[in-house]
Amino acid sequence: MALLETHNLTAFYGDFQALYGIDTTLEKGETIAIIGANGAGKSTFLKSIAGLIHGSADSVLLDGNPIGARPAAEIVKLGIALVPEGRRLFPSLTVEENLLIGGYGRKTSGPWTLDRVQALFPILKERRSSATPTLSGGQQQMVAIGRALMSNPCILLCDEISLGLAPIVIADIYAALPRIKAEGTSVVLVEQDVVQAMKVADRVYCFQEGRLSLTGRPRDLTRDQIHRAYFGT
Ligand code: ATP
């Protein structure tokens, strides 16, 4: 049985339908990437899993149990943590306080401690007493990822973690993903940067206008297939 499954997942904003019947699976320790153009529904997909948007209860299954109707706070306790687009740090708190807040109500089982997170991103230990607005964009993104890991998730949902960052900084952040995976944490990566996504993902799902347009292992997909699935040309 897959760790996480979406089955015929739909999502609405009022009358507007953002997702149409999305079927996906995520195995334990696996990294999947959700790619697609602006407005394809990638963030909506993550929000549906994180309990910020609700479809039918059985459209999201964790270990086979329906969680699609659970509120976000409960979803975190079940072991699913979101790194939101735009990071959403607490600006008046220090780096360390931001991390500790992520551990509020954490699962007791799981590998992630403050020490482990600081070992993953050593700069977060060096800058632990700094207010987050004084950090660079890349460092802030590390705080956002670290804060999510502090809840000890079995699944980490990452929304556009490379957005607005310089290539060298993106490389630093992406270097952490195999180490997160090595701890047994599964990752769902929403990414507009297809090249980056293909490097780290075990499998890729491409969305187009709310529908799944392509899925497969990166090595099995051709550039042409991806181009068509991404842009619809
Ligand atoms: P982006 O890369 O721009 O974030 P995305 O693939 O993550 O794109 P979503 O943010 O999931 O796409 O948006 C999917 C669709 O839902 C878009 O057409 C968007 O305009 C619409 N949408 C998103 N959030 C809302 C909202 N709060 N209210 C109404 N429509 C929304």
UniProtKB/TrEMBL annotation:
Under Gene Ontology molecular function, one entry of this record is:
branched-chain amino acid transmembrane transporter activity
Matching PROSITE patterns, A to Z? Answer: ABC_TRANSPORTER_1, ABC_TRANSPORTER_2
Which InterPro entries does this entry report, sorted A to Z? AAA+_ATPase, ABC_transporter-like_ATP-bd, ABC_transporter-like_CS, BCAA_Transport_ATP-bd_LivF, P-loop_NTPase
List the Pfam families: ABC_tran (PF00005)
Any Gene Ontology biological process = L-amino acid transport
Could you tell me which SUPFAM superfamilies the record lists for this protein?
Answer: P-loop containing nucleoside triphosphate hydrolases (SSF52540)
Pinpoint the ABC transporter domain residues: 4-233
- Record CDD domains: ABC_TM1139_LivF_branched
What keywords sit in the KW lines?
Amino-acid transport, ATP-binding, Nucleotide-binding, Transport
Function per UniProt: Involved in beta-(1-->2)glucan export. Transmembrane domains (TMD) form a pore in the inner membrane and the ATP-binding domain (NBD) is responsible for energy generation.
* Family per similarity comment: Belongs to the ABC transporter superfamily.
Provide the protein name. Answer: ABC transporter ATP-binding protein
Q: What is this organism's lineage?
A: Bacteria, Pseudomonadati, Pseudomonadota, Alphaproteobacteria, Hyphomicrobiales
